[in-house]
Write a structure and sequence with these properties.
By secondary structure, the chain is mainly β. The protein is built from 9 helices and 58 strands. The strands form 14 sheets. Strands 22-23-24-25-26-27-28-29 form an 8-stranded parallel barrel, surrounded by 4 helices. Helix 5 (391-404) links the parallel strand 24 (379-383) and strand 25 (410-417). The structure holds beta-D-galactopyranose.
Amino acid sequence: MKYYNDQPGIYCMNRDWRFRETDISDLPASRRHDDVYDYSKAAGAKGPAEISYDDSEWETAELPHDWVVQKEFTPDAMLNHGYKMRGNGWYRKKFRLGEEDMGKQILLEFEGLSSKASIYINGLLCKRQFYGYNSFSVDISDFVCFYPAVNQLAVKIEADAWEGWWYEGAGIYRNVWLIKKSPVHIDYQGVYVKPKEQNDGTWKLEIETTIENSFGTGAGFRLETALYQSGKKVLDLPKKRADINGFDHVLCRQETVFEDVKKWSTEDPSLYEICVKCISLSETGEEVSEEDGLDYLKVSFGFRTIRLDAETGFWLNGENIKLKGFCCHQDHAGVGVAVPYAVKEFRISQLKKLGANAYRCAHNPDPEILQICDKLGMMVMEENRTFASHPEVLEEVRGIVRNARNHPSVILYSIFNEEPLQGTHRGMRMAERIRNTIHKMDHTRPVLGSFNGGYLEDEGAVHALDAVGINYNPMRYDEFHEKYPNIPLIASETASAFMVRGEYRTDEEHNTIGSYDDFCAPWGNTHRDAWKWINERKFVAGTFVWTGFDYRGEPTPFEWPSVGTFFGTYDSCGFPKEACELYKVMWKKEPGIHMITDWNSSRKVGELQKVIVAANCQEIELSVNDRVLERRKTTAYAQDEFYVPFEKGTLKAVGFIEGTEAASHCLAVPGEIYRLKAACSKEALMNDGLDSVIVNVIAVDAEGMEVPDADNLVHFDVKGGAKVIGVGNGNPNSHEPDYAAQRKLFHGRAQAILRNSGSDNAVVEVWTDGIGRTVVEIPVHQVQRIPYMESVSDVVTVGWSMYYRLLDEMPDVDMEINENDRNSFEPIEFHGRPQNVFTGKLLKYGIYYNQIKISRDGKRRFLYFPDVRGQVFVWLNGIKAAERTDKTTGELKIMIPNGEDTLYKFFVIIRNENTESNEAGICAPVMLVDCLGE
Ligand code: GAL
C-alpha cells in the first residue's frame, strides 16, 4: 500500500500470475551443443524462464500469495515451518509496455519473497535474491520489449531452504510493482529527510535526494521540494538546479529551518510529507514535457527526538519512557505470510490497546509495518535477518536502512538475534562493519544485537555496538550493568510464557495450557515476572515480550499435533488471551481490573474456582451474587489469587483508589449459544483490489454474553465486492484448512479474512446449523484505483534466425542446417520496423528459420505474422504451408496442423517485391495465437 497515493507511473503487478509448484530448472532439457550454446547467451534461460514456455495448464494466482498456507498439515513436514510442506515453484506473468515507454526507466519492485528467488525477464536472469524479507528493485529497462512485443516475467522460487526457524511460507508473499520513470528521475528509495532539532527549539530540515540518470545522455534538472502537513502545503524549499551525466547519480541537498513543529509521539503520531519533484531540462534549459520529464516522490516523516541512555533508559521527545514492546513474526491466521496491509494494521492496533508503545520485527525487516507504526504511533526495532558482513549482506542492510530511515517510528536497528558468534572476536568484527555501514547512512538510531550469551566476554559484538539487547535471563541484567555501566541495555526478548485462549486447564496429554500465567519456557518467565524484572530497573530501557501473537511453526511447548506456538499474548487471529488483561493493568495508566477465571456452567456448584484478579488499583474487593467475599490490598506484579466456591450467578471484582471505586469487572455464567455476532475490523473497504477486512465471529447466548464453549462449524457466505482469502480460530492444535469458507469456532470464536474484489458492497452471511444467519454489509468505497499492469495472453515466438546473405534465386527449402552452425544463420528479433538487410535489394530472397515446440492438443493453432512485407513462402516441416504473392504487405496467418509432431521447423522465404517502399522482411514479432476471431 505504500504507493497508495497519486504517484505517477506506478502499476500494481499483483494480478493474473500463473503459478506452479515445480522443480523445473532453467537449464535446457537436453545437453546438445546447440542447447548448451544457446543457454549460455543473454536471454538464453530455458524452462519456465523462457518466453515461449507453455504455462496454460498452470493455476492462476493473485499476490500476495503464500502457496504453503493452502496446503494440508502433515507430520512429515518440518515442525519449525508449521508442518506444511515447502518446496520450489515458479511464477509467470506476461505484460506489454507501450511504444511511449521506450526511453523510460522500467523498474520492478518486490516487497518480499520466500525464500530465494531468481527473476527473469524475457529469458534473461536479471536478479538473484537470497533474502526473503527485504524489499528490493530490479531495473529491467534494458531487457524489456515494447509494443507490439510482449514481456515475460518469470520468478523461480526456492523455498525448500529456509532463513528462519519459524513459519516462512513460500512464494511472492508481498506486493509487486512496476514503476516507469523519466530518464532523469529520483533514484529508488532516493529521498532522505533529516529533521534535526536545534538548540533554539527550531528544526533544521535537510533533504537529500539522489537523482539517477539511467540512460547515456547527460541532462539538466531542477528539484522543487515542498513540505505538507495534513495534505496542505506549509513550505516551499529553495529550488535546486543541477546537471547529471549519462548513467550517473547525483546527490542533491536542500535545507530549510522550520519553527512551528508538531512532534510525532506514540500518543499523537503527527506526520508530515515531503514532496520532491524532479523536472528534466532540455539543453537550452527548458522544461521537458511532463510525460517525459517529470518524476516526483512523496515521503512521509515526523519530527521527534530519541535518546538511549545507559543509566536512565529511553527518551522520546525529552521524556523518559519505558519501551513496552512485543516481538512479532509476520504471519496471521488463514493467510500465512501473505498478510494484507489492513490485517497488519489490525494487529498493531490490537497491541496498542494493551498500552504497548513498541514493536520488534522479529527476526526480519518488514517495510509495510513501518508505515503502519508511523501512523498509529508505535516505536519499532527493525531487525536484520542474516548476520554476516560480506558485501551482499551489507547491501541488504543498506536496503533496510534506506527503507527505514524516514520513518519516525523506527528507533533501533537490530543486526542479529542470538548468534553463536556474538561473543567472539569474529562476531565483534562483523558487528563493527555492519554498524558502520548503518551509521554511514543513518547515525541517528542506535544499533544493537539481541544476545543470548556472550555479552560479558571481553571480546565480542558487545564492544562494537551502541547498545545491547539481552534475551531472557533477567537475573543477568544487574551483572551486565555493573560490568558495562556505559552500555545501554534493552530486554530484547522476554517472557516466552504459554497459554491457550479460552483454556483454563493445563493438560499436557492434550497439548493444552491454561490461562493463569503459570507456565513458561524453561528459558523464559511468566508475563508478570518478566515485567517485574524490567520495571524495577531504570537502566533497562524496556521490554520486548515474546510474542504479541501466536505464530505458526516452532510449536512450543508441544509438537504435533500442535502446529503453532502458545507464546502469543493474542492468539493467531488476534483474539485476546488473558495475558492481554495482565498487560493492560501492568502497562496502562488508567485504572483497570480483570478476573482471570473460568466462570462457566460446566463447573459444579461448590467446586473451588481459581480466580486471579489483575488490577492496578490500591485495593480490590471480590463478591459473588452481591455477597462480599474479601477485600484486600493489591499485590503489584504477582496480582492476587483467590479460590471461590462456584455458584450460579455473578462474580464481581471492584478496584479502589484512595478508597473510591475506580474500576470493576463482572462475570456471569453464560447460557447456550443463541446467535452468532459478527464484527468487522473496519467500517468499509476500498475498491482497490488490495484492501482487506477481518470478520470476527463470536457465539453469544440470548443475553448477548459470549459462549466460550461453543465449537460449531461456522460458514462464511460472501457476495459482492469481497472474497474470503483465509479463515482461522486461534486453536494452535487445529488442522482445519486455512483456505476455506468455513471454520469451527474455538472457544466461541472464529475469523475470516476478506479481500476486496469489486465495487459492489460486500455482503457477508455467517451461519451455523440450527442458528439463524447473521448478515453484515460492508460498504465498498470508490477510490482512485491503483492502475494494474494487465496480463496478456499472446505468445511471442523467439529463436528466429536469418540466413547471413540474400540470394538471387529461390533457395532450396530442403537445405540441411547443421544444428551446431550458429554463423550461417544469424539470430534475429522483430521489433515493428522493416529490416535494413532488404533495403535496395529488390527481387532478392531472404531466408528465415525457426523451430518451435507447439503442443499438438493445446489451443494454439496459428502462427501469426502481424506485419510481413514482400512475397512470402512458408514451409513447415518440409511441406509448403502458405504462400503470398498477390500483395506485399500486411498480416499472414498459418494454421499449425495437428499431428504427431510437437517440434515444428519453419522456413520463411521472403522476396523483396515491394517496389514502392522497397521494404521487406518479417517486421513485427511473430506470435502463436489460439484463434483469430474466425
Ligand atoms: C528465542 C528466539 C525466538 C524464539 C524464542 C522462543 O530464543 O530468539 O526466535 O525461538 O526463543 O522462546
